[in-house]
Q: What sequence folds into this?
């Protein structure tokens, strides 16, 4: 049941793998199975985001109830893409990998994939860069989560 929660958390936008790894380390789950579960959950939406998100967001941007949220998502993806393009130039693959891999708010697989889609990167290249970033973010969050919870246990006595 705990692994199902890790899997589901890792698919939620904004929380993604980062939150699921922290949940797993806080719940005392073994790192490797939790890491693999979180990666699978975080990567599952990536092809769908790449192939369909841009079209859905553009379609819904002018709709009454959902328009403002869809416009926000499009703008977020476009800004992320523009920043990546400006900093990366020809090194867009590495830039996307690092964008997704460095665990900062708003830089996960969802935003990275949307940015790749908006930048019209090739599908395979986008998925590979996002996968590398997700692997990197998982390792960073695993180290952070283990250290954080170890420190809290030490302080609690």
A:
């Amino acid at each position: 049941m705990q692994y199902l929660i890790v899997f589901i958390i890792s698919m939620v936008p904004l929380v993604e793998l980062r939150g699921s790894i922290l949940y797993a380390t806080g719940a005392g789950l073994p790192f490797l199975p939790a890491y693999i579960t979180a990666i699978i959950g975080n990567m599952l939406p990536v092809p769908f985001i790449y192939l369909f998100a841009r079209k859905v967001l553009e379609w819904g941007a002018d709709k009454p109830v959902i328009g403002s949220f869809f416009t926000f998502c499009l703008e977020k993806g476009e800004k992320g893409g523009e920043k990546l393009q400006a900093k990366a130039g020809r090194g867009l693959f590495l830039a996307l990998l690092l964008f997704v891999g460095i665990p900062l708010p708003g830089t996960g697989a969802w935003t990275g994939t949307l940015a790749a889609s908006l930048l019209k990167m090739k599908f395979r290249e986008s998925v590979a860069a996002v996968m590398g970033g997700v692997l990197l973010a998982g390792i960073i969050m695993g180290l952070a989560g283990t250290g954080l919870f170890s420190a809290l246990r030490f302080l609690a006595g």
